[in-house]
Every structure is written in structure tokens, then in C-alpha cells.
Amino acid sequence: MLSLILFLLLPLSTLSAATAVSESAVPASSCQAYNHLTFGILPFISNEQMVLQFSPLVQYLSTRLSIPVRIETAPDFAEFSRRTQQGERYDILFTAPHFYPRASDQAGYRLIASVDSSGLWAVIVAPEDSHIHGIEDLKGKRMATVQQASLATLLIRKYLTSEGIDPDKDLTLVSTPSHDASLLSTFHGVTDASSLMQPQYAGASETVRDSMRIIARTESTPHIPISVSKRISDSCAEEISTLLIDMSSNKEGQQALSHNRFSGFRKAQAKEYDRMRELFSVQKTNARKR
């Protein structure tokens, strides 16, 4: 109920998942040097879904750090990226893999963990009862995508190009606000096919998934990085990192993780995301051409 109340009462671009921190005996945290921490989350899902999926994680951190932790997002990917570059807007950053190198280089974000999974990739899906069985069948069709700056759209454009299909000439890409919106546009017959990240497709309702078939998947990238801003002390950053990495080893953490279907978090090295610089560079080049 708390999540729904927060969603309804707060501005959509600032979804607060802060809760009153228990006064039970909790070891002193170096993060208590801050009045609160802002958990910045890329707007890759609807605001309502964001609150429902991430409030348990934020509550978990808030309780163990003995400090309010608030969720904040932005209207779209471009604005989220702009706010990230401010350096201090988001204390904890949950962003796309291709956005992390820039956040690190230009705003000083430091990697503290990543989602514990082998990687991320995008999929192209079409209605089960359609005549679209492969990417060649997409020519002349309308395919829903996520926002232009999204990892899904970047991977899809690269994949189509590698297969000899011009994403700007051979089909019509229809931009939608989120992965859910992309998938539902095809489910409701607005577009002929959809592209989105595999985790979001896997999390869609069984009714929607059963009506679709996957016709292609892209290359994989490293999973979501978690980083902290330069204003966060090393000791506080280490506490947050340890809490995230240890979540999967206790019942409360496992319960919080289940809302995002994450198996957990792991230690990560910044060099894992170096290859994303090239992908981000391709995105900027394509954007200028369009």
C-alpha cells in the first residue's frame, strides 16, 4: 500500500521510496553523515512498476544504513543522462551499461557492484499468428522500440545493420516510452513487431508472452552496474556495496530481490564496461545522422 500511495502523491520524476528508519539497535553507519541518499533509477519501466519493483530494495538499504533512501528517476533517458552528469543528483546510480562509462568519466561515479547475471540482450518478438518468422519478414513493417537512447534500441539497430537491414529505410521504427509499452503496442495490434530487453520480456504477463514468438536476439552486454557519486565517502560506498552483495545470503534480502527477479549482486570491475564506450559512440554517430 505504501508504494502505491507514494506513486500517487509524488511527482512522477521523483518517486520517493523513503520510509521511516527503525530505531532498533543497528550498528552505526558511515552513511549517516548524509541526511538521505537518492537512488537514481533509469526510467526503463513505468513509474508505477518502478515503485513496486524497487521499493523493497530501497527499504532494505534504508533500514540497514539507518538513513532514508529515496527513489528518483526522470521523464526519459535523455533527461536521466543529463541529470546524471550533474554528479550529485543521484547518490546511488542504477543505469544502463552503455551509460556507465560516461557517468564515470564525466561525473565521477564509482562502480560498487553489478547485477549478478551473465549479461543482457535484446529480443525482437512478433505475434504468434503473424507471418513474421524472421528478420527478413520485418521489411516494410512497423516495429516498436524503446526510447532512442536505450540499450535495447542501440543493440537492435546494430543487429539489424549487421544482418543487412537498414533500420531507417527497410522498416519503420516506432519509439515507445518503455519496454512494456513496446511489447504491448504489438500485443494490441498497433505495431507488427516489438523490440525490448529480454528480462522485461520474460517478466511480461503469460498471456502476452504466449501470444508472441521470439524471432531474433542480439549480442549480450554486461549487466546493470551500480555506482555511487563522488560525494559519497569510500566508507559509505563500501557499506552499500557489501549490503548489496550480501543480499542473496539472507531471507530479507532474497525477498527484496524477488521483486526484480534478480539473483543478487556481485563485485564488478570498471573494465568490464569499457567495451560499452564503442557502443555509446555508435549511438551518438547514428543520432547525428538521423
Characterize the structure shown.
This protein has 290 residues and is of the alpha/beta class. The chain has 2 domains: 2-118 and 223-273, Periplasmic binding protein-like II (D-Maltodextrin-Binding Protein, domain 2, 3-Layer(aba) Sandwich), CATH 3.40.190.10; 122-219, Periplasmic binding protein-like II (D-Maltodextrin-Binding Protein, domain 2, 3-Layer(aba) Sandwich), CATH 3.40.190.10. Helix content is 38%, strand content 17%. It contains 11 helices and 11 strands. It has helices spanning 2-9, 47-65, 77-84, 100-107, 151-162, 179-187, 198-202, 206-210, 234-246, 251-258, 276-289, and strands at residues 37-41, 69-72, 92-94, 110-115, 122-127, 142-145, 172-175, 193-197, 212-217, 225-228, 265-266. The strands form 2 sheets. Strands 2-1-3-10-4-11 form a 6-stranded mixed sheet, covered by helices on one side. A 5-stranded mixed sheet has the order 7-6-8-5-9. Helix 5 (151-162) links the parallel strand 6 (142-145) and strand 7. Helix 1 packs across helix 2 (47-65). The longest helix is centred in the N-terminal third of the chain and has 19 residues, at 47-65. The protein starts with a helix and ends with a helix. 44% of the residues are buried. Residues 1-25 have low confidence and may be disordered.
